[in-house]
Amino acid sequence: RDTIQWPYREDHGKWAISLDHKRNPIVCLVDLNRMKSQFNRGGGAICLQSSKLWNLFKSIIYDIESCPANKVRFPSLDWLSSLPQRAWRKID
Fold first, then answer.
1. 39 in a domain, yes or no?
2. How many independent structural domains does the chain possess?
3. How many other C-beta atoms are found inside a 10 Å radius of the C-beta of residue 49?
4. Which of 17, 56, 57, 81 matches a 20 to 30 Å C-alpha distance to 63?
5. Could you tell me the strand order of the sheet in which 45-49 lies?
6. What are the tens digits of pLDDT across the range 76-86?
7. pTM of this structure
8. What is the DSSP string of 9-29?
9. Is 82 part of a structural domain of the chain?
10. Structural domain of residue 41, as residue ranges?
11. d(CA 32, CA 30)
């Protein structure tokens, strides 16, 4: 394994994978900054539904650093499942 590690304050890579990879193998790649001082900057995100891509990203996770729970609010992602099926382009 690679021994280079960054704390979340220094990591500029922004991506996420869904927890439930059996029903929703979703990978999101984001160029938005998450610092409060940078909330007014524009940016974008793309989310893909792909088992192969999900497994690739899952395989590079070395450790999970939790966020301070009292400072972070996690929005609901229920809207993802409400997207019309045509919004998802499967790349498997």
1. yes
2. 1
3. 19
4. 81
5. 15-17, 26-30, 45-49
6. 556 556 666 65
7. 0.55
8. TT----EEE-S-TTT--EEEE
9. no
10. 15-77
11. 6
- Entry field: residues in the chain: 92
Cα separation, 47 vs 45, whole angstroms: 7
Instruction: Tell how far CA 42 is from the center of its chain.
Output: 18
Sole residue written with tokens 């869904």: 18
For residue 26, the tally of other CB atoms under 10 A from its CB is 21
Furthest C-alpha separation in the chain: 42
**CA distances (Å), 7 to each of 12, 58, 63, 91, in order?**
10, 18, 11, 32
How do residues 29-77 score in pLDDT, each as one tens digit?
987 665 667 666 767 788 999 999 999 999 888 777 666 666 655 555 5
